[in-house]
User: Which sequence fits this backbone?
């Protein structure tokens, strides 16, 4: 798994995206985790599912509500993190590390560059 | 903060300082703190009113199904305002304050409707100048014993005017969590002072709307607008215990004949407790299907995750032949039928003082 200092980008829907070759790892940001509160249920996409950029493909549920998690880029789901399904609290404890959701082979590596970097995401959070 | 019935209310808290040392904050932590120790809820959005004068009990009985004339001074009762068709206009608490009259607490979203309706039979003095605090949890009685002489002696559904930390309050032993607890009707100007005095007690943290909802759902208690409304009857909702014994002989309240007929013939659907077999919660408006997923069998009216139950839970109206405890159902969650089972309510046992 790529380290936290790999090139990481962010979406306005509060996903983080880490690039390693033509594979990206996707999760929800620490900010998202804090806003949701303790997660009690997580549903991940099926392996090899083709997803469009912005398509809802995972679900997180807290005591109070269900929220969608979106594919940040177009591609195909290559790996899912079953351990967070068994123990959703991992996402609350380490959202941007052990609490990753899925990995995808992306169609267009250039699209990754168009996502927000850490600085831009931090600025975006200030506007919320 | 979220809008709720015209008020801006906290869903959950982010505690700082001393409160953070007591509780992590957030819906789950606030919920568990209430079941373990005690939590304070600001429920000032609820409607409070007095009915003064002679004959008010008889007048109110023209609109509700409960025995109000038989309610003794110092006692409170849960009752229902019913429609002519046997639906529920609101569920409310009615207390007998003796010579002062009857004290009512109604749902925030139904204040205008209820008070206009009751105003057709007797004058209603709406108490705009009072707030309502709910102290709920197993440590509530010990806290009250410390700061409110006499409060811990109140029986369940008892009510009295008492001094709480030097503030005169109308205190009832009741609540909406399934736990022992108290509701304090307090003059508006004294509310912050009293709330701060309560929060100085080491057992207490404030809790928001999120915990209030998960606590009441675990306790199997109805939320007006979700689980009951003008289209649901007391029979379907499993609230026939709120119909007074004397009222069942005369059936002389709105919808009495319709409700009696439904009792005799059996309702076509019943409110049921539902446990999804897996871990996925089924939220309100989730479709309930037959176990083979082929036919509609009802709809979830409240659903979520129970922190004390440590499992998902739901209530909903279910076709009568599938509404008995142990019946298998299927819940349509995100396009997939998930197996579920009808279970007795409450999900978490009540711990009222008796």
Assistant:
């Amino acid at each position: 798994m790529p380290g936290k200092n790999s090139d990481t980008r962010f979406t306005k829907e509060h996903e983080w995206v880490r690039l390693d070759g033509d594979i990206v790892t996707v999760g929800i940001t620490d900010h998202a985790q804090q806003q949701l509160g303790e997660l009690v249920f997580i549903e991940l996409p099926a392996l090899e599912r083709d997803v469009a950029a912005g398509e809802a493909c995972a679900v997180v549920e807290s005591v109070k509500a269900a929220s969608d998690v979106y594919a940040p880029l177009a591609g195909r789901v290559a790996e899912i993190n079953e351990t967070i399904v068994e123990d959703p609290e991992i996402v609350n404890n380490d959202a941007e590390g052990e609490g990753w959701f899925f990995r995808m082979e992306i169609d267009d590596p250039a699209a990754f560059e168009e996502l927000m970097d850490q600085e831009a995401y931090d600025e975006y959070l200030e506007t919320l | 903060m979220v809008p709720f019935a015209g008020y801006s209310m906290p869903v959950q808290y982010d505690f700082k300082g001393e409160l953070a040392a007591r509780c992590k904050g957030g819906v789950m932590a606030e919920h568990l703190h209430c079941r373990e120790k005690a939590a304070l809820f600001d429920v000032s959005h609820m409607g409070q009113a007095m009915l003064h004068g002679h004959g008010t009990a008889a007048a109110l009985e023209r609109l509700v199904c409960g025995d109000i004339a038989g309610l003794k001074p110092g006692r409170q009762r849960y009752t229902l305002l019913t429609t002519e068709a046997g639906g529920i206009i609101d569920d409310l608490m009615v207390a007998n304050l003796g010579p002062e009259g009857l004290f009512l607490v109604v749902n925030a979203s139904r204040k205008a409707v209820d008070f206009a309706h009751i105003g057709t039979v007797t004058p209603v003095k709406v108490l705009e100048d009072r707030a309502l605090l709910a102290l709920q949890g197993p440590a509530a009685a010990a806290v009250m014993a410390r700061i409110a002489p006499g409060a811990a002696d109140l029986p369940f559904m008892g009510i009295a005017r008492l001094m709480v930390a030097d503030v005169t309050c109308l205190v009832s032993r009741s609540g909406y969590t399934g736990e022992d607890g108290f509701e304090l009707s307090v003059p508006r100007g004294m509310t912050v002072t009293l709330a701060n005095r309560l929060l100085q007690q080491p057992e207490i943290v404030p809790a928001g709307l999120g915990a209030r909802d998960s606590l009441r759902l675990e306790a199997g208690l109805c939320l007006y607008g979700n689980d009951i409304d003008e289209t649901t009857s007391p029979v379907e909702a499993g609230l026939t215990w709120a119909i007074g014994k004397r009222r069942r002989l005369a059936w002389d309240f709105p919808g009495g004949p319709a409700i009696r007929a439904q009792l005799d013939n059996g309702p076509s659907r019943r409110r049921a407790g539902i446990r999804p077999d897996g871990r996925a919660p089924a939220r309100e408006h989730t479709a309930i299907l037959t176990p083979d997923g082929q036919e509609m069998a009802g709809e979830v009216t409240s659903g979520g995750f129970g922190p004390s139950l440590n499992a998902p839970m739901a209530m909903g109206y279910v076709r009568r032949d599938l509404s008995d405890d142990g019946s298998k159902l299927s819940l349509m969650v995100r396009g997939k039928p998930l197996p579920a089972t009808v279970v007795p309510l409450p999900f978490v046992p009540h711990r009222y003082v008796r």
Notes: Chain B touches chain A through 19 residues (CB under 8 Å).
